[in-house]
Design brief:
Elements: E1 4-8, H1 18-31, E2 36-40, H2 46-56, E3 61-66, H3 68-78, E4 84-89, H4 95-99, H5 106-112, E5 116-126, E6 129-131, E7 134-136, H6 139-150, H7 155-168, E8 174-178, E9 181-185, E10 189-193, E11 197-199, E12 202-203, E13 215-220, H8 225-231, H9 234-237, E14 246-251, E15 253-258, E16 262-266, E17 269-273, E18 276-291
């Protein structure tokens, strides 16, 4: 394995400056005399194809230059290969980069790929969809679907959509089957986390470890508005698990039976799915290339 392939999403993030990022890649890697290639994604799902082809052609690292959706695509193309996933964060939330302490300064992230440490991590699956950070099927899934249609990116538009959907959302009953038990809930949030945070510092599963062979099943029951307001900060201080309405279980698999079909999201990307959701962890399926010294 010899070369590094950069997969650049030219429409990712808030300040879309792909040519600036590409210029930095050329500057840094040409000086280092490292064999590299750059390809841009042209359509949704193209990153999967480019990453898979890069691995087939012997790339030792395929770098996702984009947000969590781009990272998800590249990761899917690299599952069960020895080619590592690298990341240059260029999204609006950058949850994956934050979870793995990858510099949000893009030039530093590019420079960090010259010397890397490797780490194998787990991947989650929900029906036919894979995720590396967090998947959800409650309010967060509805927010993801509406945020995608909103037309603007970034923390402020996400906050606006989130507040609007919070007041619209009506929790529906679900049955959960895991570890030989069955329970019924009407959750506001129902998420499964491979790593702690969604992005923008919002931590849904503070104790999630991405290479422990488990997912953290997070169930947040509805709260009165006043309790939501006074506890909102906990989502950003890593203490959401201290709210008594939050239950977190470490699971290898879980089946969710919903009252109705509806949205789920995987790493922020929404999908329509049926009533039954089968979720499992796939242990040590993805190899990461992290800037040396940044490996948590």
């Amino acid at each position: 394995m010899s070369h590094i392939l950069f997969v650049v999403n030219p429409v990712s993030g808030i300040n879309r400056k792909p040519e600036k990022l590409i210029a930095w890649i050329h500057e840094i890697f040409s000086k280092a005399s490292v064999d590299y290639q750059i390809q841009k994604t042209r359509y949704q799902g193209h990153g999967v194809k480019l990453a898979r082809e890069g691995a087939r052609q012997g790339a030792r690292i395929v770098v996702a230059v984009g947000g969590d959706g781009t990272i998800n695509e590249v990761a899917r193309g690299l599952l069960n290969t020895d080619t590592a996933l690298g990341v240059v964060p260029a999204g609006s939330g950058n949850g994956f980069a934050r979870n793995f302490h990858i510099p949000l300064n893009q030039k530093k992230a590019i420079e960090g790929l010259l010397q890397v440490d490797y780490r194998w991590i787990d991947v989650g699956r929900i029906n036919s969809h894979f995720f590396v950070n967090v998947a959800g099927m409650g309010l967060d899934a509805v927010i993801s679907a509406n945020f995608e249609r909103f037309g603007m990116r970034g923390p402020l538009p996400y906050f606006i959509v989130g507040v609007r959907e919070y007041f619209r959302y009506r929790p529906r009953p679900v049955e959960l089957f895991f570890d030989g038990r069955r329970c019924e809930r009407h959750p506001l949030l129902l998420s499964v986390a491979n790593a702690p945070q969604y992005g923008n510092g919002a931590v849904i599963a503070p104790q999630a470890i991405p290479d422990d062979g488990f997912l953290d099943l997070c169930i947040l029951s509805p709260l009165p508005l006043w309790r939501t307001v006074i506890n909102l900060h906990r989502l950003f201080t890593g203490t959401i698990h201290e709210v008594d309405a939050m239950e977190i279980y470490r699971v290898k698999s879980v089946v969710v039976e919903r009252a109705d079909p509806g949205y789920i999201h995987t790493d922020g990307d929404p999908h329509l799915e049926g009533r039954r959701l089968e979720i499992e962890v796939l242990a040590n399926k993805l190899k990461l290339a992290l800037p040396r010294g940044m490996n948590p």
